[in-house]
């Protein structure tokens, strides 16, 4: 589909920010959140994903206040192989389940992050609404 955006591209990140900031349900679930996040999508060269992608964003009172590519100091760092992120986006595994099963590594204040589990679930639901083109061997799972 021509209107899909490549996961991690500037266009994709702008659409993610726009949709999340406009989502009333997310705003309510994350109204007490004031944190920053780094997402590390680790390279899988054998699966056509040659480079690690790192993006970050800030949430304040239920709104995304910033989004960037690259590393910065953040409240939380979430990292996993690219394929795990694909499975989360496709709903094959929930973000919280990925953490519990150690497929998703998290650095940061765990009790504080767990308090926002419902907001995280909603964030992933919003991402599933973004027409997404995936990299490498995952391209046939693109959606939207």
Alpha plus pi helix count: 6
CATH architecture tag: 2-Layer Sandwich
Radius of gyration: 14 Å
Helix content: 25-40%
Total number of domains:
1
* Envelope shape: globular
Largest sheet: 5 strands, mixed
The CATH C-level name is: Alpha Beta
- Measured distance between first and last alpha carbons: 8 Å
The CATH topology assignment is Nonspecific Lipid-transfer Protein, Chain A
With strands numbered from the N-terminus, the spatial order across the biggest sheet is: 4-3-2-5-6
Report the count of strand segments: 7
Category from helices, strands and their pairing: alpha/beta
Question: What order do the SSEs take from the amino end to the carboxyl end, as H and E?
Answer: EHHEEEEHHEHHE
Low-confidence segments, given as residue ranges, are none
The percentage of residues in β strands lies in 25-35%
Average pLDDT figure: 95
Give the CATH H-level superfamily. SCP2 sterol-binding domain
